[in-house]
Amino acid sequence: MVFLRTLVHSFTTVSSTFVHLLLDHARTRPQAPALREKVYGIWQTTTWSELAVLVRRLTCGLAQAGVAQGDHVVVIGENRPRLYATMLAAQALGAIPVPLYQDAAATEYAFPINNAGVRFAVAEDQEQVDKLLELREQCPTLARIWFDDPRGLRQYSEDGLDSVDALLTAGDAHYSAHPKFFDEAVARIQPGDVAAMFFTSGTTGNPKGVVHTHGSLLDRAQAGQRFDKLTANEEVLAYMPLAWIGQNIFSYAQWLACGYVVNCPENASTVMIDLKEIGPTYYFAPPRVFEGLLTSVMIRMEDAGRAKRWMFKRFMDVAKRVGPARMDGKTLSFIDSIKYRLGDLLVYGPLRNTLGFSRVRVAYTAGEAIGPDLFVFYRSIGINLKQLYGSTETAVFVCLQPDHEVKADTVGVPIDGVEIKLSDSGEILVKSPGLLKEYYKNPAATAEVLGADGWYRTGDAGYLDAGGHLKIIDRAKDVGKLAGGANDGAMFAPKYVENKLKFFPFIKEAVAFGNQREQVCAFINIDIDAVGNWAERRNLPYAGYTDLAAKPEVLELVRECVEQVNADLATDPMLAGSQIGRFIVLHKELDADDGELTRTRKVRRGSIADKYLVLVDALYGGLAEQYITTAVKFEDGRSGSVSATLKIIDAKRFPAVKAAA
Amino acid sequence: MNTAAQVLLKVNNVSLSFGGVNALTDISFDVRSNEVRAIIGPNGAGKSSLLNCINGVYTPQAGSISLGGQTFSHMNSRQVAEMGVARTFQNLALFKGMSVLDNIMTGRNLRMKTNIFQQAIRMPFWNGAAEREESEHREAVEKIIDFLEIQAFRKTPVGRLPYGLQKRVDLGRALAMEPQLLLLDEPMAGMNVEEKQDMSRFILDVNEEYGTTIVLIEHDMSVVMDISDRVVVLDYGKKIGDGTPEEVRANPEVISAYLGTSH
After folding, report:
1. If you write DSSP's letter for every residue of B68-122 in order, what string do you get?
2. Which of A477, A396, A393 is nearest to A440 (CA)?
């Protein structure tokens, strides 16, 4: 009987919708906490039954305002319980919540709103309301706007602008007139219905609305739940934007699938404090957040007393040596395990506590490549940090790293329901129940990525290694081939090489060339802070970037970094040919103002190659040095020029080694 | 803004001198309920002296001040505070070693009713008057912390905060009194543009959310013109202008005294 019940239960949860899951939780565990929010310094709990009532009131309120099945409702704000409830209420009506980035400029909202003909929006506060009101002329369809926090908005008298409180009151009136409405509306929702739309921040052209159904989002949420054995007892801190599908899956889809508690921080600046107070058990963040946390620890360590610094260094060395193996489930030697335990008592434990990671059972990072040192640091102090692979179009979960099988340069194994294969050009193709339904009103773009055979083109190049782990190399369109020379026809992945270089703290930017060339050459920017500090400790005087970048000692330092990258690449079966043969340390920092980087600090390889053509020619022409003058724009708008004679350095390359996988 | 609003504070022919120096000469102006009133003028014009007369730090030699319908020839600091006037200071009056929370709590001082003996006694399973009172005050303080968006610094000693945030805490301490009239002495001195914008928004929000009447001294003309309803201009202790920002800006005497003349 018990067995039968669990069987039935698992059946009902697998094919469900967000609102049905909410009502299930409210029925089976009404008093369990669903959401917590820190208000006036005290964590306030919303239980599942309270949340269900809130959602019913909002649903009736939205219905009263004219929201109907198929309508889009824009949601803009930080993670706030009432915004979560609004998304559920929209879904209860068969309407589609469209979360947008709260830190975007008003003009960036115009496209999504007009694209979907949005008539309704729910905003967190005055800041967001002001942006939406600014758009009214551009977006004539936007009729109603509700705000959660009335502060500063009491004097506003714009048409269609109202508070969420007023929406709730209207909902109550609607409910007493139509008491059956909510249940009937909820009964109509099917797993195949569209549940949400996420706009991807396209680097070129207009953003695209990625359409997901209840089924696709929940299937992936549940696959992730099974993979990491998540329970209703997890604690999650929601502080990334809801418009990012990563946060949406972790704090919304999986929240409803597992029934755990989502905690909303007080505001963006208190996240560190809230993290420590809540002590999440399940954590997700892009690499830059982990990097920021580590930096703040390191800065505080520099200020610590001598004894503490000594202890920290001593035990971090132990952690670096034995921590990763320990996390991989290997047994340590007796002495090492005593040392590690002592370190745990004195350093790692308190450090995890300071970071707010004392209770973390599973932590994920995704979104971009994470530096191996950074990744290993967290694992070595006993935090189960793992990587995953996925995108907005795949509802995140494609590949995850299983516990004890974690490598810094792969992103894990395909999980339940996912099939992976490579196209002839080496692009990763994915088939999964979590794939997007379509790009909204954009059949051409949909057809480009989603074939009739059901395979989704990720646009990433990569391969499955001997252990079945997926390794991402680069964007497929950037991957090229070497031509001529010793490595004719070998694969060349510029970003992979550049990232490997950039993981060194001394190297800030790198640009790799090699497509249709006989060897790989690179431009390198040193990190003025890190190298400057290094130079000061060696009593090496310098005057500014150009001078420092030309010092023979610095060039030697960079050469060591490059050769380490080469040694590393030599062990890679696919990319051994991408070792860097010659490089130049550039005389100026690459800058977005000079058109060399995008605003999000990605290198524009093409325009750099054009601008520094003489240097590229010098690299491939075998010259030992080259004179160059470059026009630069200063921040105050003046322009000038920087000139220098740059030395071209040859780096040692290594024969390809067959490394054991 | 309702221009026919009642007058909350009226300064009648006030004069103040230190020995032979006339700091203020025959100054008269009024402050209406619920408005933002600015006092501007060059250095040494008597702006801070005027504020000090209003809240009882200095006693003027001549003239009187009416507050809430009562007229005084000199003000008493405590009495003024009890009548609902709070102020912030040009050179911050905060306890540097105490947390943000405790600093703002000091602003509740006038509203604490329990005596030292009640506060000293604490019993298990029974919330005494002092404990109930403390949690009420804590709630009021938390609302101010939320309002000023300084939640991240609740427990941080004030001395460790940057100057712009200390100014905000100083405002919080004044707000903790739940004042009817708030006197701000150069709330934006020494701030960068972004901090000034934040502070301007907080001042307007205080005015709007709590209905607090605000008198502020400020040097930055653009700020004054943006946020105040009416402006008084002082120069060498004399009033040379009074009116809306537009009127004041057009007043030739003000232009020559404050903004400088082109010779």
Report:
1. TTEEESS--HHHHHHTTEEEE-TT----TTSBHHHHHHHTTGGG--S-HHHHH--
2. A393
The series of mean pLDDT values per 10 residues for chain A, 661 residues long, is: 41 70 96 95 96 97 96 96 97 96 90 95 95 94 95 89 96 96 95 95 78 96 95 95 92 96 92 92 91 82 87 92 89 92 94 93 88 89 94 94 90 94 91 95 93 92 91 88 84 89 88 92 91 88 91 94 93 87 92 77 84 93 90 76 89 76 39
Rounded Cα distance, A394 and A433, in Å: 9
Fold match, A16-278 / A479-650 = no
Residue matched to tokens 């620890």: A297
The single residue listed with the structure tokens 């992936």 is: A220
pLDDT digits (tens, 9 = 90+) for A273-322: 999 999 999 999 988 889 888 888 877 887 788 999 999 999 999 998 99
Whether residues B142 and A41 touch (CB distance < 8 A) is answered with yes
CA A73 distance to own-chain centroid: 24
SS3 B258: helix
Show the tokens assigned to A515. 């497509």
Q: Any idea where the domains of chain B sit in the sequence?
A: 1-84+179-263, 97-177
Closest CA to B215 of B2, B33, B4: B33
Q: What is the pTM of this model?
A: 0.85
Q: Which residues of A, range 237-276, sit inside 8 Å of B by Cβ?
A: 266-267, 269-270, 273
Q: What architecture is domain A479-650?
A: 2-Layer Sandwich (3.30)
CATH number of this structure's domain B1-84+179-263, picked from the four choices 3.10.129.10, 1.20.1250.20, 3.90.1720.10, 3.40.50.300: 3.40.50.300
Asked if residue B255 lies in contact with residue B247, where contact means CB atoms within 8 angstroms, the answer is no
Domain A16-278 belongs to what topology?
Rossmann fold (3.40.50)
Say how many CB pairs under 8 Å bridge A and B: 34
Q: Three-state SS for B26? A: strand
In this prediction the ipTM stands at 0.80
Q: A235: left (phi > 0), else alpha (psi -120 to 50), else beta?
A: beta
A40 → closest Cβ in B146, B201, B209:
B146
Q: In B, which residues are within 8 Å of A39 by CB distance?
A: 146
Suggest the residue from A38, A43, A154, A270 to mutate for an interface test with chain B (most B CBs closer than 10 A): A270
Domain ranges of chain A: 16-278, 479-650
Helix (H) or strand (E) holding B5: none
From residue B12, how far is each of A96, A644, B32, B143 by CA, in Å?
A: 63, 72, 14, 37
**Cα A496 off chain centre by:** 18
